[in-house]
Amino acid sequence: MSLHKFKIVLVLICLGIFSQCEKDDICISSVEENPDMVILMLDKDTGVRSLPSGFLIRPLGTEKQLSNRSSDSLALPLKLTESITQFEFITNSGNENENIDTLQINYLRKDEFINGACGYRANFILDPSPILILNPGDNWIKGAVIIKDTISDEISAHLGILH
Q1: Cβ 28 vs Cβ 117: under 8 Å
Q2: 33-162 adopts what CATH topology?
Q3: What is the pLDDT along the chain (163 residues), one digit of tens a residue?
Q4: Surface-to-core class of residue 55, CB atoms within 10 Å of its CB (0-12 exposed, 13-18 middle, 19+ buried)
């Protein structure tokens, strides 16, 4: 093989190798990892946003409290390894007439590939019957309304809880 042909073959091999390389993926900071479900507390009669007195939410089985006393909406984290997450919705917290409703949120998880650097993130799709009250009786929660069934961001509300 002549030196000229060898150089041409070498150049072609190098071009083939380097044309296979891709730019490094960068995980864009605006891509949320796994979005939380945003709920609104709604008056059952008027549909107006309102918080009950002494309101707080606690993920079932923990002492962690999720409350936002300055807003009528709250972001709730959903479990990645299950298709349900359970919360205690509490009114009149700390008072003698405290009322706890245990809600189960039902959903389907759908993973979405972002890119090599970010990997996957979970999106959640609410079931047509998104809540189940686990302790029937004197419930202050009267139902729920789906506002947006696919949870892929935390910008807008997904579920309205009627009280």
Answers
A1: no
A2: Immunoglobulin-like (2.60.40)
A3: 666 666 666 655 655 554 444 445 555 444 456 788 999 999 999 889 988 888 889 888 777 777 655 566 788 989 888 899 999 999 998 889 999 999 999 999 988 887 777 777 788 999 999 999 999 888 999 999 999 999 988 888 999 999 9
A4: buried
Q: Which of these, 22, 101, 15, lies nearest to 55 by C-alpha position?
A: 101
* CA distances for 80 relative to 20, 30, 150, angstroms: 35, 21, 15
Q: What pTM was estimated for this model as a whole?
A: 0.74
b/e sequence 98-133, b meaning 16+ C-beta within 10 Å: ebebbbebebebeeeebeeeeeeebbbebeeebbeb
Question: Encoding tokens for residue 89?
Answer: 């919705």
The domain locations on the chain are 33-162
Give me the residue label for tokens 């590939």.
113
